Amino acid sequence: MTDALVHGGDPTGDAYLLVEDARATQMTPSSKAVLTPALGVPLTTVNAFEALSVISSVMDAGDSSPDDGDSSPPAPAGDTHVHHKRSETIGDIALKAFSSLQALLDNSYDFGSECTVAGDNPRRRRAISSAIDAAILRRRLESRASAAPAHDDVEHTTTTTRYLSSVARDDDDPPPPTTINDDKKNAFGGSFDWRDPLKFDALLTDEELAIRSSANAFCQSHLQPRILMANRNEVAFNHENMKEMGSMGLLGPTIPEKYGGSGLGYVSYGLIAAEVERVDSSYRSAMSVQSSLVMHPIYAFGSDDMRKKYLPELAKGDMIGCFGLTEPNHGSDPSSMETRSKYDASTNEYVLNGSKNWITNSPIADLYVVWARNEGGKIRGYVVERDTPGLSAPKIEGKGALRASATGMIFMEDVRVPAGNQLDVSGLKGPFSCLNNARYGIAWGALGAAEDCFLRARDYVMDRRQFGAPLGANQLIQKKLADMETDISLGRLGCLQVGRLMEGGMASPSMVSLIKRNSCGKALDIARGARDMLGGNGISDEYHIFRHMNNLEAVNTYEGTHDIHALILGREITGIPAFMPHASTS
Questions:
Q1: Which residues form the Acyl-CoA dehydrogenase/oxidase C-terminal domain (predicted)?
Q2: Catalytic residue list
Q3: N or C: which end of the chain has fewer CB within 10 A?
Q4: Is residue 360 part of a domain?
Q5: Which pLDDT does position 115 carry in this prediction?
């Protein structure tokens, strides 16, 4: 049925109904991201049938591309099937298919009309939407795959053609399975690389791969050589380190370039976080606070004057920021905060009084994003400069984890803040929006530390010999390595999925809770297992794993504890909030 539309012919009967449903289908954000550059026109002037047809042809490209020795007869006159070589880009193929479809159907359909929500067949629309999403995945995979030899003995039928043809069935019929490869003989034609077991890199763009490579090179050359002595002697992250990160564009990577950021996507931010924490959680913590907890609220809730004043300096690392939410008596329950703000109309200032605890970067910060309850009982955010009278930030000494991070307190006694430095957001949604961005980066970062432990443990058990054989020949060792690789690989795919959803505006905070909890919990287990595999050597800081293990104990706790995120997910699953104890137990 769909062949008649894509490959030429007269659209009638069920096919016509399918087209009408397709034209009425709203496109998903992920479809928009792919099709806007492919078609070269604003998406609001592209209807759903055009989008569907273009993507269908793109999928055909992967299944029917002839090799140089193809002897297929030429297409008959009037056939609009797009034959091409694999050297053509996806965009070229899409444009050719689009032009052919215009020539075929311009007398029957209003190309250029905007998408509208219409029709009475939601299952059909869902099927079409699923096919579009499947095609997008195919496009990503094909954009990175090398040309494969043609199989002349296989009759290729595209997934989109088969899937869309099936939606003409009764609504009560079960939907057909979604597959990418219709040639069952070739389902296992790939190879397994233990370094990238689930082909994670194939899901990244060339830009994302380049960003990761650049971040890795910087971290290994500038941060890794310092971390052993910094952790041993509790030498905190400082302005020099932050400026180096800023020069590489690692600070505020998702902030627009007009304000000094790099204008990157959330996946790129996650990849950077993983490379920094591969060295040490202290360094990633400093970067996360700067980017997600300081630059984000100023960009999202600050005035344009505040953005222009602070963001470029923070992006360069010339200024260091911190985020003050946690208090000595209130950690997981920020709604009970005791810090207060009071407006002074005579000076047009807010007066802050209170204290904050366990604040990353506070001893070295130039800028403080502080949250306080105002006279009306609302929680508001304020941007406070370091030299403000009444403000102090002593360092917390003697930490067993994050020893290369400057962690401290914030004391405020009649600290006066200009009214223009109050952030334009009210309630906990302000600080929580910051925390969700930071937790997302933590989910990636923890897996970076976990992978470093995994690789170091693998190297050790391959070299270390006991009882005449490498430790790696032991079944228990191999089981531990398999568990580590599985948890890291699946965790990364979860982070990638949430990152893509964030980029498309389709994520939810609970998704971030899921990946933060999973990554941190699994990373801590991996570090503990890796330490055990090294035996007595595992407690030596020269092997780095013990340091990662200690750090991950803290990472598993901050930005929402492991159990708090479990309660967030539990509330989603049951609809029952369980954060407060029952009255009978109070």
A1: 432-573
A2: 559
A3: C
A4: no
A5: 33
Q: How far apart are CA 552 and CA 565, in angstroms?
A: 16
Q: Which of 120, 145, 175 is the last residue of a domain?
A: 175
Gap between the Cα atoms of 512 and 498, Å rounded: 7
Confirm whether 400 is domain-assigned.
Answer: no
Asked whether residue 28 is domain-assigned, the answer is yes
* DSSP assignments along 123-189, one per residue: HHHHHHHHHHHHHHHHHHHHHHSPPPPP-TTS----HHHHHHHGGGS-TTSPPPPP-S---GGGTT-
Cβ neighbours of residue 12 under 8 Å, at least 6 residues apart? none
**Which residues in the chain come in under a pLDDT of 50?**
1-52, 54-55, 58-88, 90-91, 93-94, 96-98, 100-131, 134, 146-171, 583-586
Give me the sign of the Cα torsion angle 214, 218, 219, 224.
positive
Residues whose CB falls within 8 Å of the CB of residue 27, separated by 6 or more in sequence, listed in order = 35, 43, 48, 51, 115, 132
Angle at 80 between CA 76 and CA 82, to 5 degrees: 105
DSSP state at residue 456: H
pLDDT of the residue at 189:
84
Q: Which domain holds residue 111?
A: 2-68+76-175
| pTM passes above 0.85 | no
253, part of any domain: no
- Find the CATH number of the domain harbouring 546: 1.20.140.10
Residue 271: its H or E element? helix 266-279
Look at the chain and report how many structural domains it folds into: 2
pLDDT at 171: 47
Quote the CA–CA distance of 391 and 324 in Å, as a whole number: 12
Per the CB < 8 A criterion, the answer to whether 293 and 369 are in contact is yes
- Cβ atoms of 372 and 341 closer than 8 Å: yes
